[in-house]
């Protein structure tokens, strides 16, 4: 089983974990649907994010991150991120996963039709 991560650390030391409430110290603003955009940047393995989004439980007062942690980077970072993840989790043969986390890494278009690199940490306990 690969050691796929289920959490990200922010520069201020806060940690966002799949399946757990957001720390009270994490500042957020509204995002699309049930998601929130996190104010701050990641560090460590996930460093250099442009944007962080989390999908919350249907009970927003609990602020439990149930579906995903979505990390958005400039498109130019794609190769660097693939290399970083391959070094950490082994060669890429699709996506990285274990029984508690699926890590997707790809290029998509953002709201402004600008290609961006997206890493998404998904918790299979909350998949439909």
Would you mind describing this structure in some detail?
The chain contains one helix and nine strands. It has one helix at residues 78-89; strands at 7-9, 15-17, 28-30, 35-38, 51-56, 65-74, 96-97, 102-109, 115-122.
Outline the biggest β-sheet: 7 strands, antiparallel
Strand content: 35-45%
Overall average residue pLDDT: 82
Total beta strands: 9
Strand order of the largest sheet: 3-4-5-6-9-8-7
Number of helices: 1
**Fraction of residues in H or I helices:** under 10%
Helix-strand pattern: EEEEEEHEEE
Going by helix content, strand content and strand pairing, the class is: mainly beta
Q: For the record, give the distance between the C-alpha atoms at the N and C termini, rounded to a whole number.
A: 23 Å
Question: Whole-number radius of gyration?
Answer: 14 Å
Q: Flag low-confidence runs.
A: none
């Amino acid at each position: 089983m690969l050691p796929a991560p289920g959490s990200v650390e922010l520069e201020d030391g806060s940690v966002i974990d799949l399946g757990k409430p957001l720390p009270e110290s994490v500042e957020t603003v509204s995002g699309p649907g049930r998601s929130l955009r996190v104010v701050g940047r990641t560090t460590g393995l996930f460093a250099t994010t442009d944007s962080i989004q989390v999908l919350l439980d249907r009970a927003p007062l609990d602020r439990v991150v149930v579906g995903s942690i979505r990390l958005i980077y400039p498109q130019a970072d794609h190769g660097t991120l693939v290399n970083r993840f391959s070094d950490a989790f082994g060669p890429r043969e699709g996506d990285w996963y274990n029984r508690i986390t699926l890590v997707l890494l790809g290029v998509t278009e953002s709201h402004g039709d600008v290609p961006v690199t997206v890493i998404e940490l998904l918790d299979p306990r909350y998949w439909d």
